[in-house]
Amino acid sequence: QVQLVESGGGLVQPGGSLRLSCATSGSILNMLTMGWYRQAPGKERKLVARITSGDTTNYGDSVKDRFTISRDNAKNTVYLQMNSLKPEDTAVYYCRSLSPGYQVTWGQGTQVTVSS
Asked: In which band, very low, low, confident or very high, does the pLDDT at 27 lie, cut at 50, 70 and 90?
């Protein structure tokens, strides 16, 4: 079974940058499709970015050209680099994995707050 642990969240000023990390259990990261999602209070959880086992990436329209998803298979870690942050980016950010057997796993989430 896959387990995911997010880290790197915190308070940042508008226009600032933050990098989130998602540490995965085991050594099968290269076989997983990974995604970052976020959920603000009273809002639905939405896709932020996704990267497949073949390194194809997709981004939500609201974060295109500002966020970048990447993976380090040797470290079993997925990253989300967030630049030019806006108050609207404030949310709990969740890491999600999809295995070749279609098993979905969610991390516990990490809070990102963009405020001056």
From this structure: low
Mean pLDDT of 80-98: 98
The H or E element that residue 48 is part of is: strand 46-51
CA 90 remoteness from chain centre: 13
pLDDT in tens, 35-72: 999 999 999 999 999 999 899 999 999 999 999 999 99
User: Is 98:6 a contact under the CB 8 Å cutoff?
Assistant: no
In angstroms, the Cα distances linking 14 to 18, 25, 83, 114 are 11, 33, 10, 6
For residue 84 the two structure tokens come to: 């030019």
Residue 103 — left, alpha, or beta (φ > 0 → left; ψ -120 to 50 → alpha)?
beta
CA distance 41 to 98: 25
Q: How far apart are CA 95 and CA 34, in angstroms?
A: 7
Strand-strand pairing, 10-12 and 110-114: parallel
